[in-house]
Amino acid sequence: MSDPRLARWADVLVEYCIAAQPGDVVGVTGGVAAAPLFAALHRALLARGAHPVMLPTFPDPRANLLALGDDAQLAFIPPTERFLRQEADAIITVLAETNTKALSAADPARQTLLSRARQELMAASMDRATAGGFRWSLTLWPTDAYAQDADLATPDFADLVFRACKLHEPDPAAAWRRLAAEQAQLIDRLAGADQIRLVGPDGGSDTDLTFSIAGRSWVNSDGKRNFPSGEIFTGPVEGSAEGRVRFSFPANVGGREVADVRLRFERGVVVEASARQNGDFLERTLDTDEGARRLGEFAFGTNFDLTRFTKNTLLDEKIGGTVHLALGSGYPETGSVNRSAVHWDLVCDPRQGGRVEVDGVPFLVDGRYV
Prior knowledge:
Layout: H1 5-17, E1 25-31, H2 35-47, E2 51-57, H3 61-68, H4 71-75, H5 79-87, E3 90-95, H6 108-117, H7 119-130, E4 135-140, H8 144-149, H9 154-164, H10 172-190, E5 195-199, E6 208-212, E7 219-221, E8 226-227, E9 231-234, E10 242-247, E11 251-253, E12 256-258, E13 261-266, E14 269-274, H11 279-286, E15 295-301, H12 313-316, E16 323-328, E17 343-348, E18 355-358, E19 361-365, E20 368-369
Parallel strand pairs: 1-2, 1-3, 3-4, 4-8
Antiparallel strand pairs: 5-6, 5-18, 6-10, 7-9, 9-15, 10-13, 11-12, 13-14, 15-16, 16-17, 18-19, 19-20
């Protein structure tokens, strides 16, 4: 892809998202399909005086590992993974899958083993980021595979990604700072709140979920860690979720399209779960560990430059007027103490008749903040 917005994209990632400083060791990893962005990032990091360590990955290495590796190989953590999470000052990851169904034939039990082996590394990197010793950013290269999932031509999907990243703005970093200020106002309104209630557009027959956020902190996700971003999120109190929720939009997870997920919670734990498609994979994921059946995150989407679902969670969870919940590990900076090898974001769309109440007062109605 030859596009003048590439240099702008790389500059925003390096200067705004990870704030690279002279002498910083910065890992850059992701699929080789994103080679044009890797080249632009390499140039931008050198211009900042940083030390780029380029670690592109070939297509579908996990498919080979899951198909051919024994248990010891599944549990092995390569030195490059440890470097990226434990030693680098910052990391930029570029999602660039060329086949989003590459893991569709993988045994879910083996995928669970692979995730469990990385749980400690995942928790350590979260703690490191919370302490301020580690900066990370995740972005997405518009591959044909992602475009096909979104039912779009690749150039149209690329335009969607660029707009979501605010690269159409003359000063993208300034646009993200403006959004950060708007999100800060929403967080101010949520200060001291106790209970969230999510009610679906069906009047509650499919979705009527309550949980506590008492004592928890809200995080202003302003494009630094997810690029694009546009959300505010917190960690629900672990034992508080009660009720049911339906996620009507499908998502590609672990090489599978999981559609129409329905969950019922009691005392914070998923006690019933179903999906119209790949429900067995959902159940296996919930059985990964004890924390996988609890909520680690709740978030409001605020990026109104995103309007349509793409089956890509990095994009869909940011759609303005939606909300999402994550099963599994929570972020320590929110106050969450839930730990799991799983962090699975599921998007709920209240834009057509749904609402979110905060301590009984409407906060989001029909996809608009009251």
